[in-house]
Amino acid sequence: MPDEKVLIPNEVGEVLFYEDTLPVALVDNIPYVALRPINDFLGLDWSAQYRRVQRDEVLGDEIKLIIIQAADGKQYETLSLPLEYLPGWLFGINASRVKPELKEKVIRYQRECFRILWQAFQSRAATPNVIPQLIADQAETKARVDTIEQDVKTIDQSVKEIQVILSEIRGLSNEHRATAKEMVDQLHKISGTQHRYIWADLNKSFHVASYTDIPDEKWSEVQKWLQKQLDNTRKSKGIEQQRGLFDQGEQP
Questions:
Q1: Are 81 and 62 in contact (CB under 8 A)?
Q2: Is residue 217 part of a domain?
Q3: Which of 28, 38, 140, 215 is 20 to 30 Å apart from 81, CA to CA?
Q4: What is the arithmetic mean of pLDDT over 144-152?
Q5: Distance in Å from the first CA to the final CA of the chain
């Protein structure tokens, strides 16, 4: 059992860690973190975690009962660990044994929770002003993360737009792609050959992975190739030769 003496903190605050609010208390300028809220956020069995802490020779000696006022205005005795011992408890949690939907969250706590809290406390002397400053630091960190995430989304969109532009620069124009598709559709209707086989023959003839990669300056060659396929197919089907689907000028 923890020391039966209940400690009265000099100050109590709440620190936002992603979507969770963590109670933090200062007792004689030593920061303590309440374990039960973190336990519940991670969906752990509190009775099992309590027993684990008691069995641990180090954590069992360090865990304390601290009076913390909750959001409902009532004061509760909470089992808390000094911040410097929080990793000992966090890393004792096996992320592979928690609920699958909470595994990522457990890993996040193990990787970031202690680091963020510890850095905040180590960046200045432990005084009663630490917790308000810690809360401000957390808000600033979250704002920076939100900004970075938005910047990443903007960059992703810009990259996609550039890829489209480069695709058009390197390959057939949108207009020529549309014309090629119309000619392939005509060839499919006359010959009965599936579209993918027609495209495969075209790609093979021009040594590309996709017809869109053919340089636009070769469009006349592409058009002639497709028109030749159409003419040969009509001839083999006994269909009267017609003028090219996309030939220009007056009909004879």
A1: yes
A2: yes
A3: 140
A4: 75
A5: 103
Q: For residues 237 and 190, is the Cβ–Cβ distance under 8 A?
A: yes
Q: What is the amino acid identity at position 76?
A: Y
Indicate whether 55 and 94 sit together in one domain: yes
Residues 193, 143, single domain; the answer is no
List, for residues 44-67, the tens digit of each pLDDT value.
999 999 999 999 999 999 999 998
**Whole domain around residue 193: which residue ranges?**
174-236
Task: Label each residue of the chain as H, E or C.
Answer: CCEEEEECCCEEEEEEECCEEEEEEEECCEEEEEHHHHHHHCCCCHHHHHHHHHHCCCHHHHCEEEEEECCCCCEEEEEEEEHHHHHHHHCCCCHHHCCHHHHHHHHHHHHHHHHHHHHHHHCCCCCCCHHHHHHHHHHHHHHHHHHHHHHHHHHHHHHHHHHHHHHHHHCCCHHHHHHHHHHHHHHHHHHCCCHHHHHHHHHHHCCCCCHHHCCHHHHHHHHHHHHHHHHHHHHHCCCCCCCCCCCCCCCC
- Position 124 scores a pLDDT of 41
Q: Give every CB contact of residue 141 below 8 A, 6+ residues apart in sequence.
A: 116
What pLDDT is recorded for position 135?
Answer: 60
Higher pLDDT, 77 or 125: 77
Residues 141 and 180 in one domain: no
What's the structural domain count of the chain? Answer: 2
More confident residue, 112 or 3: 112
